[in-house]
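Researcher: Next entry in the queue.
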Amino acid sequence: MGDTTIGVLGATGFTGRLVCQALERRGIRWIGGARNPARPILSSEVADSRQEGMRSPHALCNSRSEILAADVHDSASIFRLLRRSDLLINCVGPYAELGLPVVKAALEARVPVFDLSGEQEYVRRCAAFDAQARRAGIVIGNSMGVEVALSDCAAALAASGLCQVDEVHVAGAAKDFRTSPATRSSALGAIWGEGFTREGGCYRPAAVAHRIRQFALGTPFGTSLCAWYPGVECYTIPRHLSVPTVATYIRVPDWSPAMLKLAGRLAAVPHRLGVSPHSVGLLAAPLRLARNAAGLLGGAPGPSRPARFEIRVDVLGRTEVQLPTAGRRGDQTSQPCSSSAQRSVSVTGLDPYGLSAEILVLTAMRLLSSGPAVGRGGILSPSQVVPAEWLFSQLELLDDYDFGWRLTAPWSQESSPPPSPASSAR
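Model: Structure for this entry, 426 residues:
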């Protein structure tokens, strides 16, 4: 990487420290930004042997790396960090509240930036900067963490065998997964925010768990109930696939659908009245307190052991086939024909947070080593930043994450298709 320097905003946060360590292991020069650069690591963050080696970025600093004071509310400090970075990895969330100032600063400084967002509001608002980013040739990589990066790439791989894509359905599951404070806060914000689903080429408001369906997942999950939730894939996937319907689901306990539906309906009430709970003083303060409390609940600031996860992406569409026909003279010919088909990609692995750090570093290295992003700038999805097959092949080489993926074609024109996912709604 030569003299390349990668900036890490939020370097003393849970994921930020993992990113700094991934950079350090590869010998890449990095510069961190944090509100408290000297923040020590907490003993509760090394609850098992897997994370005993996890040190604060301050302890990692050497002659090639350092940490600056940087706060998203202080634009001058963000510009200082950007001026010394060839690419910025933004680990500071919730992005719906804190992400856009970083995007604006990065475009002004003409520095690429990656984020880990899973928040629809942020990704939706980022789209307004696409034309500016394209003109400048600057890459703004949205949602480069495990969940969206892998599902986005899986959708690209599954769709590659189809001549037309009609629907994409994404399901995620995790076992023994303990979230970080930022993830808990962002998740609560997403539930209380206005969620959208993409159906028939249009976006419409939808409540959490308004649709429940089953997905056939692998070990240890098996056939699982999954509830709809406002994932950002309905925005990221259509950037590179012409697909009218995209839905995202998450595995839930068998007893929880009724409770989730009730919570989703309650959260949707302010929006149906034309009121955003985040913008009304009477509601905004309690919600902010609730999000902060959600971040603090759960004890340790991060997972105490690596979680196993699976992401399944079902792509429904049409494929071109050659049907044999008899010619006028009785000779055999073929005639092109399209027929309904489904292609699915399942991705499995361990440790979502650690793998997110690896994805961020690998994609940053790939982008910076490929030279100026002439004609490649814009607000991009993960599979637009790097080729899906390349990313998966790089992740398979890592030792600690048991990463794997498989492509299947559950049915095609030779067999009867299963019921439409919409018919599985409860």
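Model: The CA atoms of residues 82 and 109 lie 7 Å apart.
Researcher: Noted, moving on.
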